[in-house]
Specification:
With about 240 residues, this protein is α+β, with helices and mostly antiparallel strands. It contains seven helices and ten strands. The longest helix is centred in the N-terminal third of the chain and has 26 residues.
Length: about 240
């Protein structure tokens, strides 16, 4: 299969002064990522930028399994640093410096998605939209454990609380999904600020456009037409 092309963009949205999102757009590495600093916590932008910088510095391992292992080790090392060193160094022993992350690795006809938190990876294939990542959030936990509807879980006052994030706990549990890639596949990585105001039909229509750049422009056009209460970040990847 040929080379992958991509486009990436971030925007603070309409209500936040500071953008705590960060992205990695690495078609030459076959590695892309979105990190969303935990809202309301001091240092969210530090966490997201550190994650992206550490991932960008990884060497080019020869195969996908080694690269996937390296990404997971990198994120766990970053988690320990955020959870211990930075928190203590900044004199905030009770504080959290944390961020979600979703990363995509592509090599030939294989893909790996690795994540923690509620930033998402979507796949547009055969005119169907698939959510590859599964949110590490209280809302998703309520759906899984109590078998209640998405709307019922969303009504919980702490529905958006994260159950996993880089820097939030001493040990980091990551979601990992590997899959075969087919011709025409398009991937979307995004923070919750982008997808929370857009339905699946809107996401799918944007991803069906001719290029990652056009898809990205359409996504942000729709998102910024809405409330855009949070930072918005997206990366679109296609051959």
């Amino acid at each position: 299969m040929g080379a992958w092309c991509s486009a990436a963009r971030t925007d603070p949205g309409k209500h936040r002064r500071r953008n705590e999102d960060a992205f990695l757009d690495g078609p030459c590495q076959g590695l892309w990522a979105v990190a969303d600093g935990m809202g309301g916590h001091w240092g969210g932008d530090i966490a997201s930028q550190l994650i992206v910088a550490n991932l960008a510095a990884l060497p080019p391992y020869p195969d996908l399994s080694e690269r996937s292992k390296a990404v997971r080790q990198c994120l766990r090392w970053t988690n320990r640093r955020l959870n211990q060193e930075l928190t203590l160094t900044n004199g905030r022993p009770s504080g959290i410096i944390g961020s979600t992350v979703v990363a995509l690795l592509l090599e030939d006809n294989r893909a790996a998605c690795i994540w923690a938190g509620d930033s998402r990876c979507y796949l547009w294939r055969g005119r169907q939209l698939y959510q590859l990542s599964k949110d590490h959030s209280l809302q998703q936990l309520l759906i899984d454990e109590q078998r209640i509807s998405h709307d019922e879980a969303g009504a919980h006052p702490a529905a958006k609380a994260l159950t996993r994030a880089v820097g939030a706990a001493p040990e980091l549990m990551l979601g990992v999904l590997e899959l075969d890639v087919r011709p025409g596949d398009t991937f979307l990585l995004c923070s919750d600020g982008l997808y929370q105001g857009l339905g699946g039909a809107t996401l799918g229509h944007a991803l069906s456009l001719a290029s990652p750049r056009l898809a990205l422009e359409r996504l942000f056009e729709h998102a910024l037409r809405g409330a855009a209460v949070d930072n918005l970040t997206a990366v679109v990847v296609r051959q």
